[in-house]
Each structure stands twice: as structure tokens, then as C-alpha cells.
Amino acid sequence: MTLVPTVSAQIALALADHIEQVFGVMGNGNAYLLDAFERLPGVTVTTVRHEAGAVVAADAYHRASGGLAVATATYGAGFTNMLTPLAESVMGSIPMVVVVGDQPTSGPRAWDVDQAALASAVGARTFTVGVENAAEVTSEAIEWALTRRTPVVLAIPYDLAAREARPSVARPIARPAAVIPQPGQVDELADLLASAQRPYLLGGRGAWLAGAGSALGELADLTGAVTGTTVLGRGLFPRGEFDLGVTGGFGADDAMAVVGRADVVVVFGAALNQFTTRFGELFGHDSVVVQVDVADESTNPRVDRFVRGDAAMAAEAVVEGLRSRGTVSSRWRESLDIAPLRHYEPGTGMASDGRLDPRSVAERLAHLLPHDRIVVTDGGHFLGWVNMFWPVNAPDRMMTIGTAYQSIGLGFLSVAGAARAKPESTVVLATGDGGGLMALAELETAVRVAGGRGIAVVWNDAAYSAEVTLYGRAKGLALAPMLIPEVDFAALGEAVGAEGVVVRTLSDLDRLADWAAEPAETRRFLVLDCRISGEILAPYQAEIIRVNS
To answer: What is this structure's pTM?
Structure first.
């Protein structure tokens, strides 16, 4: 197909040099852009059903693939529908270009809003193209997104979308430069670890993005350090037998007690938020806490020493320094029996209210889910069960889009992006019934895109259970606004082409074992509507109640 040299076509051409996937909803403001993408080889357009879904799918695609995220929608209401996930992607440091229509160059119409101001309010910069500079401005937007690891908005004035563009050259894109750690700080860290008796290494998503996994494994081997990760760093360390698992509120109590005994804690690529640090109570009073990060300064007041630098480069330099010192391992990790420390309280099968114990469901699913999987989650009480009981192979196989902005309702929206990033893997969505209902527009997208390599596990307790726990039970607020009439998600899935299974007993999960044995090409997307009890409190929720009471 011939590509007409319009402003929209120049944008598409400039982006095509850097991307393989685009997620979007067509409207008046981006129709010509989507037409241009459809005419370009090597770029796949995945249509979604709600503009928020475009941003979330693009976000998930980046997290699972590392590629530049691109989402598109029309102007006005199309753009404002993107604001919640755009805020999430800003807070999650996702390099993304959001291409949208905008008011014409002649000025705003009755239905136009100040989109640049709205984007700025959630932390995204807007770049606006013209007929003379479409490719150049697009290049600037791409560079800004990649070098600062942040979303940008690329605006197309409505009257320019189909206008013939004057020649404009997409300039080379500068790549972000690695932050080289200072040698003096590296030496101090090496000295500290060389003398540590009980070292603990904590890795986050930043360490994964830096490619630090192998070097951190070497560092743990040299020092005898016990390891652990944040939720977004799960699977980072190569030696799982010495890993305490998720650090913080999702961690097992006995494992977290070990962290409290560490004399030296080194944190690579993690921000140390309140949940990771158990509201400041995780580390021992005498522990020396060192943070290695590309941020300008430490991100938590508990940090005693800060090393600014790329996590991989810092880890490699410390390994070299320890070897030159002839460092002998502390053998702390060998002195511990790690597996029992990671034990969680098991479920009872059925709770006292006659519904399934969510711990039992999570544990059973951990044995039945395909090994080659990507876990995407919505937000909600159920996050505890997913992170406690489901193993994850690597950080790019676990994403919790919505948690940075404390949003729910983005779960089904994540599936398409993860499926496009890793088409040979099974995408497993975990969502609550409240968030699932918010995201229903993208149930069809999830089923269509993931097909037989998609599973949705709906933790259905007929309530916004986090709110029931924190406000209904703990504070005595009225329960009625927190309750949801029980919804048949299995039937909703069937309506858009999925196979739906209502799970009322653990034996109902046996269908998953049969499903997993069938060819992916012939089976349908599977919706497991798990009727769980809201009476079982996740430990991290108990911790939040304790801190806030």
C-alpha cells in the first residue's frame, strides 16, 4: 500500500524505526496515523476497546519486552480517558510515546480542553508537531521518553493530521548514558561487604533493567549473602535456594526476621518504599543500609550510605574489588535453612463462610499454572496471595500495573501488551471482582489477543475487600458501599469467546490441568471465576491496619 506523505505518515515513519507494536483506539484525531501504521511493514497495530487500555497495554508491552511503548487515541475525551494509566506509567518510569489528536491550529473548539496542561498535571511533557517538523519533533519526543524513562505526549493538531508534510528528517536518537559509580564509593562498599558477617542483597526492577542479575549473583556467591527482591524484582537472583523471596509486606515473617538480623544491607535498583521496608521496621537498628541507584540521592531516610550509579556496573566493580582483596565468604547463607523460612500459613480449603480459602486456591494454582508464564495483576487485597504463593521466573514476567498510582481496574487492560511481548508464553491475569468490573471493556481485547495462551483468575469475594478490611472491619464504617452483588465472570468470559469456569471447590480447578495439556492453538482463553472468602486476611493487609490504627 502507498503511504501518502502526510504529517501523520511522517510521525508513523519516524516511530517505525524504533517500534514493532502500537496499541490504540481509532478516532477523528488519529485515524490518519493508524492508517499510516497499517501501511507500514514491521509494525503491528493492536486495537483495544477503551483508550485507557491503549496506555496500559503499551506499558505492559514495555515491561515484558523492554521495547519503546506506543499508545494512541483521539483528542478530547479520548485523551482524558488515558489520564489514570498515564499517571501510572509516569510513576512507573515507562518510556512511552502517547500519540493523540489535539485542537486545531486555529484555536480550541467548544469540546477541546487544554491537553498539555492535563498531561503536565500527571508529569508528562507534550510535544506538538507541525507541517514542517513532524519527523524531527517525533524524534525529540522519542529521545525524551528513552533518555528520561518517562511517557511523553505527541500531539497532532486536528487540521494538520491529513495535511501534506514538508520534508522533515528524523534525527538520530541519543541513548541514555550509564551512570558510572564513583571509584571511592565502590571501594567503601567493597570494604563494608568484605567485613560483613551477615550480608543481605536486595534487588529491584532497576537492577533488572540494568542487566545486573548475573553480577549480583556473583556478588552473593563471593560474600555468602542472603538475597531477596522487591515485587518488581522477583526472579532477579540466579540462586533461588538462597533467596528469601519478596521483601516487605508480602514476605514470610520468618524470612523477614532474617533480614532484620543482617549487619550490612545493600539495595540495588529499588526505591525502598513503605511497603518494601514494612513501614520502616524491616531492617535492624544496627544494620548498615547502602542504596545503589541512578537517582540523584537516596530515596529513603533509613539509607546510611548512597552510591549513585548503574546497578550492574556497581555490582561488577564491587565483585572485582572483593576478588582483589581475597575476600572470604561469610557463609551466612549456608548456615541458614532458607526453604522453611519462606513458608506461609497454608489454607484450610474452605473458609467458615462456605467459600474457598484464597490461600488454598493460590497454592493449588501455583502447581497447575503453566511454567512458561507472565503474571499480570490488577490491584487489590488478592495481591498478597499472588505474591506469596506464585513463583516468578524473572522480573519481566511479573507486572503490577496500577500499584504505583494505587489504582485498580487496569488488569484486563494489561493482557494484550504482555501477550504481544511474549507470544509463546501464557499470560496469567490476577484480578479482583471490583477491578475486573472496572476493566470489562478490555475483557474482549484480552480474549482476542491472548487467545489460548491467556488465563484470567478472578478473585471473586463479592466486595471491595481491601476497603472492607481497612474501613469496614477495622474502623466500623458502613459496609454497603463496599459490597458487590456476586457477578458471574465465567459467563462474561463466555460472552466474548472465552471458556468460563466457576470455581467453588478446589476440584473445580482440575479443569486448568486439562486446559494446560491441550494445544494452545485450539483451546480458548480461560476465565477462572474463583468464589473466595473475604474473611481470610492477607498478612500485608494486617500490617497496614496495624500501622494505621
So the answer is: 0.96
